[in-house]
Amino acid sequence: MKFVLLAVLAFVACASADEWQPKTADEIKSIRAACLEEVPLTEEQMNHMKTFDFPNEEAVRKYLMCTSVKMDIFCTHQGWHSDRIAKQFKMDMQESDVQKLADDCIAKYPKGDKANDVYVYDVHKCLMDSEVGQKVKSYIKKRQEQLSKQA
Question: Residue-wise over 1-37: b if at least 16 C-beta within 10 A, else e?
Fold first, then answer.
């Protein structure tokens, strides 16, 4: 009975798309910190990720899955929410264009077990290799430069 209740609650949490809002920079920072506590990464893995190189290693895959779940752009029951990805990462692109890129990446990989960290990693890598990823990388680099100038 507990399992059924948990499954229903998880489904309801995943399905509440009407209330979803893009995460702020501070919320993303908190999510990353929480995921690092849940899935500790080595200094080497962290250094790779700072340069947008995401090693295909179990800990990195689980970290990416954790952040995607906590950002509510991925649900272990329904999979990726391309509409939410589009809202969160549109940058200076049209939301519909970002959603199409996200849908294309999602379609490239077998759906199978949506709770699989390899599936999350593969779609994440595809997104980061796309125009969306290039925009995100550029934005983060500019933000880091601005922060270092202020320090």
Answer: eeeeeeeeeeeeebeeeeeeebbeeeeeeebbeebee
* pLDDT per residue as tens digits for the range 49-105: 999 999 999 999 999 999 999 999 999 888 999 999 999 999 889 999 999 999 999
What confidence tens digit (pLDDT) does each residue in 60-71 have?
999 999 999 999
> What letter does residue 72 receive in the DSSP assignment?
T
Tell me the Cα Rg of the chain: 16
Q: CB–CB of 113/142 below 8 Å?
A: no
DSSP 74: E
Bridge partners for 79 per DSSP: 75
Backbone angles phi, psi at 13, to 5 degrees: -60, -40
> Which residue intervals of 16-150 are DSSP H helices?
25-38, 43-50, 58-70, 82-89, 95-108, 117-129, 131-150
Q: Do 59 and 39 touch, CB atoms closer than 8 A?
A: yes
Q: Which amino acid is at 131?
A: E
How many Cβ atoms from other residues are within 10 Å of residue 132's Cβ?
A: 24
State the pTM of this model.
0.82
